[in-house]
Amino acid sequence: MKKLAFILCITLLISACGLFPPPYKVPVTQGNLIAQEQLSQLQIGMSESQVTYLLGTPMVKDTFKANEWHYLYTARNATPDTKTSDVNDLTLTFSDGVLKQIKNN
């Protein structure tokens, strides 16, 4: 009788874990949140300071290619309420402090 009660208690304890909702996961966003209107204002020939004013500081300034700026954006555990960026990977190339190339991946 004790064995049966013990097995019944263990079974109830193990199955009770499935009754709770899953834990809340905080959405983690990293990088630069860039809107489509900001991207449309970006033009070849802008200076580095104009680009910084428009888009903010780049996420990565390439060490080996000093004239290349990377604006990256990632979101983990995103929910429908999480703000998302229109651009996930934007690479800007400068020459003599002037924007020469825009790559939107």
UniProtKB/TrEMBL annotation:
**What keywords would UniProt list here?**
Cell outer membrane, Lipoprotein, Membrane, Palmitate, Signal
Q: A Pfam family in this protein?
A: BamE
Compartments where found: Cell outer membrane
Q: Which domain of life is it from?
A: Bacteria
Using the record, list the residue span of the signal peptide; answer none if the entry has no such feature.
Answer: 1-21
Instruction: Kindly give the InterPro entries that the UniProt entry links to this protein.
Output: BamE (IPR026592), BamE-like (IPR037873), BamE_dom (IPR007450)
One of its GO biological process terms is: protein insertion into membrane
Classify the protein's membrane topology as the record does: Lipid-anchor
Specify the Outer membrane protein assembly factor BamE domain's residue ranges.
31-101
User: Could you give a GO molecular-function term held by this entry?
Assistant: protein-macromolecule adaptor activity
- Species this chain originates from: Marinomonas ushuaiensis DSM 15871
Q: What does this protein do?
A: Part of the outer membrane protein assembly complex, which is involved in assembly and insertion of beta-barrel proteins into the outer membrane.
Query: Chaperone as a keyword?
Result: no
Its subunit composition reads:
Part of the Bam complex.
Family listed: Belongs to the BamE family.
Q: Please state what the protein is called.
A: Outer membrane protein assembly factor BamE
A Gene Ontology cellular-component term: Bam protein complex
